[in-house]
Structures are given as C-alpha cells and as structure tokens.
Amino acid sequence: MKSLKKVELHLHLEGAAPPGFIRALAAEKHRDIGGIFDERGAYAWRDFKDFLRVYEAAASVLATPRDYARLLSEVLAQCADQGAIYAELFVSPEFCGGTDLPAWRDYLAAMEEAAAQAERDGIASRAVLTCIRHFGPERARKTAICAAETSGGWVAGLGIAGAEDVGELADFAWAFDCAREAGLGLTAHAGEWRGPQSIRDALALGVSRIGHGIRAVEDAALLRDLAERGITLELCPGSNVALGLVQDWAAHPIARLADAGLRVTVSTDDPPFFHTTLSQEYQRLADAFGWAEAEFRQMNLWAVDAAFCDPTTRTRLR
Ligand code: ES4
Ligand code: ZN
User: Fold this and answer.
1) Ligand 1 atom closest to 12 (CA)
2) What is the 3-state secondary structure (H, E, C) of 218-237?
3) Which residue's CA lies nearest to atom 10 of ligand 1?
4) In this structure, which ligand is nearest to the CA of 211?
5) ipTM of the complex
6) What's the gap in Å between 93 CA and the centre of ligand 1?
7) For residue 89, what are the β-bridge partners?
8) CATH, domain 11-16+78-313, list 1.20.120.1200, 3.30.565.10, 3.20.20.140, 3.40.50.1370
9) Which pTM value belongs to this model?
10) Sign of CA dihedral 227, 291, 278, 162
11) For ligand 1, which residues put their CB under 6 angstroms from it?
12) Tens digits of residue pLDDT in 184-242
C-alpha cells in the first residue's frame, strides 16, 4: 500500500510527532516529561481525556519556531515515506506561540520554509489552523485572526479540534465567519464523540468537510443531506478503533458511509498515538472490506477535490 499515491487531509502536527522526537527534544532542553510514555517508549494514554493530557504534555516541549520547523520536516518526510504526495496539517497557534499575531508570524515563517523544502523533496502541504474547543471561543477568535491575517500561502484553512463534549460549535461562529471572509477552507471535528446533531452544528458553521463524522450513520436524513451537499468526511478509522469508538475495523461505518453516497477519505489523525500509519490504514481497509486500487483511487480523488490548496496545485495532484 505504500506505493499508492495518497492525499492526507486530517493530520494533527503535534499528534504526528514520533515519541523519540519528543523525548530527544525534552532531553536537549533538560525538560522532564516523564509519565507520558510506556515501558517501550510509546505514548501511554487510557482514554480520550487522558489522550489530550498526554498530547498537551508532549506538545509542551515544542517551544520555538525552530522546534516546529524541525517537527514539520520530520512529519512530512514520514508522510512522503507512506506514499503521500500532499498533506494538510492541523496546526494550532494555541499550542505553539500562543495566538499573538507577531509571534505566530515567526512560527509560520519557520514552518513555511520547512514545507517549501519538503515540497522540493516531493510532498506538498498546507496548514489548517486549528481552534482548540476546550480552550474556548476567545482563544479561537485569536486563532481565526492569525489564520485570516496569514492566509493565501501555506495557511489554507481553519478547523476546530479538542474535546467535543465541551461547549457548542455555535460558540465558534465568529471565528469561522472571520476565516470564511478571508477565503479560507473550513472543517470541524464533529460526529466523533457526539451524535448527528453535532454534524448539523458543524454544517451551520459553513464547513465543506467534517473531521470524522462517523455518527452520521445514525441518521438517514443527515446522510442524504451530506451526500447532496457533497460534504467530504475526513475519516481516520484506526483512530476510531484505538479510542474504542468502534469495536473493530470490520465494524467501522466507512463502508456504510460510502454506500450512502458520501465522499469518504482516509487519514491517520495522530499516527504514533494510535499506533498506525497511512499505508496501514489502507491495508486494514483492504482486509476488512475487500477494497483495492480502484476504491482507494476514488477516495484520493475526493480528497484532492476537498483539499484547501489552490486550484493549480489541486490539478497537479489529480
Ligand atoms: C484533538 Cl486537540 C486534538 N489534538 C489531536 N487530536 C485530536 N482529536 C481531537 N482533538
Ligand atoms: Zn483529529
């Protein structure tokens, strides 16, 4: 599956950091972040809340623009090794550099340089600046301003992640309106932990894509609506299995969502946390549903259509 050319739309930058990278950086900085690794050196977490704790502890060693540039280079090289030709990364000014616009510009400049080098090496990328739901609407407002003020180059979209059980998506409407007016693509995590209504709430923000959205299967009318509107689902089946949202790969709703006419795509979310890789996701889908090259090719065409990059780049990816 590595040789299949792939497009990844749902990948959290900090969540893609190999544990070894975080450990090495912590050692360089004489920082103790013990308690987030298991005896084999992998990230250790128990449930989603604990996952967010470990994620934030790991991200806390990333401090300077150079740290983020180094991480991005490493992550894009990893994506390329998995056969990805394009990746969209969820990058949150709320984790790096705060949401102060001058500071954000420094982080962005460093990451843009790393992304340009990776593109010369064969993998294109864009950033989706990401509001963190459990940090609240006020910080999200600042993230949206960072996104709007730096849109047009590497920054191509605005998204929202974080604890889906905290607050309501409607509280973030200002941020999404601001980003839309700046011409950015919009996506939101929804229908992962909460039911169909959360997906309707995301649509009300004006998104063209939904992060996960697996619980749409519970609502036939919603499925029809998503299909008619041509909404793309950023599915990360290995993440759902690892978090216990679905029992196993065979039980994953991806096939039912595809049968309902939805544009389904495949990504990894936070690969080292969920012990997965992009080619492993495809292999597991092949094993569970008998899918092969033709099905995967279609999903990647949908992913290209839904990508937030400029039309010229999109044409080149097809
Ligand atoms: C997430 Cl804040 C965050 N980071 C990484 N993965 C996530 N999934 C949902 N929220
Ligand atoms: Zn995610």
Assistant:
1) 5
2) HCHHHHHHHHHHCCEEEECH
3) 162
4) 2
5) 0.93
6) 14
7) 11, 127
8) 3.20.20.140
9) 0.98
10) positive
11) 12, 15, 55, 132, 161-162, 189, 269-270
12) 999 999 999 999 999 999 999 999 999 999 999 999 999 999 999 999 999 999 999 99
Q: Which two tokens stand for residue 192?
A: 């992962």
Among 239, 270, 274, 276, the mutation site with the greatest number of ligand 1 atoms within 8 A of its Cβ is: 270
User: 90 near 10, Cβ under 8 Å?
Assistant: yes
**Distance from C-alpha of 152 to C-alpha of 248, rounded to nearest angstrom:** 40
Ligand 1 centroid–CA 126 distance in Å is: 18
**Rounded distance between C-alpha atoms, residue 227 and residue 98, angstroms:** 37
Q: Would you kindly state where each structural domain of the chain is located, as residue ranges?
A: 11-16+78-313
pLDDT, tens digit, for every residue of 241-294? 999 999 999 999 999 999 999 999 999 999 999 999 999 999 999 999 999 999
Name residue 140's amino acid: A
